[in-house]
Design goal:
This protein is mainly alpha-helical and about 170 residues long. The protein contains 8 helices and 2 strands, in the order ααααααβαβα.
Amino acid sequence: MSKQKQYSKEDCIESLKKFSNKSDKLTHKEYVNFRSGEELPSYSVITSRFGSWNRAKEKANLPTNGQHKPKIKKPPTVSLTDKEWEKLKGTKRYNIKIKAYIAEWKVSNGCYNCGYDSNEAAMQVHHPNGRNGKSITEKGISFEQLKKELKEECLPLCGNCHNIEHNEKDYLTI
């Protein structure tokens, strides 16, 4: 039984550059055809080394097909190091970005009723007209939808004022 060759990131980059000199289409399907019969890293090896086909092409300074989404920048209020941030998956970064935006929105606006703005953990998002459709904490809401909903349909309230707001409504309907 023969041992399979272990390919480094450098081997993968070299293979991609060799491929780019022979092909105008830098798709993974074209690469599979190109390496057929040659001792080159497979598509799966390349993507496992870099995380995606486009990231591998980026590292080899080759054009990507535009499907690789730009990385989400770390919000300034997030206490993770840049290295820790880079290790997170895109969905985790996106969720942190949304939570950081909501936290900043609550504190920067302060409680609509009493003005409290010292700690975002004590602040809540109030929908005075009830919720229409997806809540801002539901998965699937875009960042633009979130900003629009906060601006047009929500009020920041401290926990006390929010409880009073809902208790008064509930009390009045008894």
